[in-house]
TrEMBL record:
Protein known as: Somatostatin receptor 4
Domain G-protein coupled receptors family 1 profile intervals: 52-298
Recorded name of the encoding gene: SSTR4
GO BP of this protein: cellular response to glucocorticoid stimulus
Alphabetically ordered keywords of this record: Cell membrane, Disulfide bond, G-protein coupled receptor, Glycoprotein, Lipoprotein, Membrane, Palmitate, Receptor, Transducer, Transmembrane, Transmembrane helix
Major location category of this protein: membrane
Amino acid sequence: MDFNGSQDYGSYPTGLPYNTSMDYEDYYQEPDVSKIIIPSIYALVCCIGLTGNAMVIYVILKYAKMKTATNIYILNLAIADELFMLSVPFLATSAAVRHWPFGSLMCRLVLSVDGINMFTSIFCLTVLSVDRYVAVVHPIKAARYRRPTVAKVVNVCVWGLSLIVILPIIIFADTVPAQDGGVDCNFLWPEAAWSEAFVVYTFLLGFLLPVGAICLCYCLMVARMRAVGLKAGWLQRRRSEKKITRMVLLVVAVFVLCWMPFYIVQLVSVFHRPPDPMVTQLFVILSYANSGANPILYGFVSDNFRRSFQRIVCFRWLESGLDVEQVDYCAVALKRQATCSPLDFPKDCMASEMVFRNGTYTSRTTTV
């Protein structure tokens, strides 16, 4: 199809429409069951993503001990993922009704929010990897640069860079006429070649270059670890940094696994032929699922995040709590409910030697 602004436009059924030269006419011939299954999957991803990232944002903002430089970057990533999820209901609705019912302004707004938060996510992961590199390879300099105030400035720069990168989306996103007489939300490119150029542009800036920088950081870290070996003081510091580095690396690996199929489909569509529309749709959903996976990864890998999540979910009613570094809240709650009456609990069942002050706690390990 030709996309020179005066002929047929075509569109993605849902998701950020990078390659508008793809013909999804067959998508509208899929069985009606897809009208239920696809929006249902979107709804599940949205609920998990919104809940999980809201919990991450809450625990970092609430507990002063969680406000480390690394966690400030994680907070920025969680905010990006949370906003990323806000566009999902619009896309799910569009998938269900098979057209865009929200108008031109919302089309541009949703695609812009979708784009800026997608780029912000990968840029945040790149910054996190650089942060890990500085902490492991340059521990002396790390004290100067790895501060919450510096992290906040870097986060603002990340959002500014993302805004610049998505300017083509802001300019060219609009509603376009569909083949069935309805309206689709898509890009209105001046020339057909712009669509293909935009696919390559987003692949380079939103995937290949950031992932390359991330891999470089971790390669340098591995080389540094092998070089210093078991020098005095290194082993203890390496233990304190190991869990944080492993968590960041795992988050990056999941990002690559979730987004690589999407970009492969886009490139194949440009240089070969469009794949099956349902396959494309599933890969779009997989890319959105990445935003809901991050909080789950934090909970599994980081003891501090896991115990903070437990305090919210299982022990929220205990205002003067126990040390989150030493207690499994779910287990404690169940045990004490069995041994203490509600009247005795505040007076007799509190751990007197463990103190919370203003929502903060004391930790002997590196906080994540």
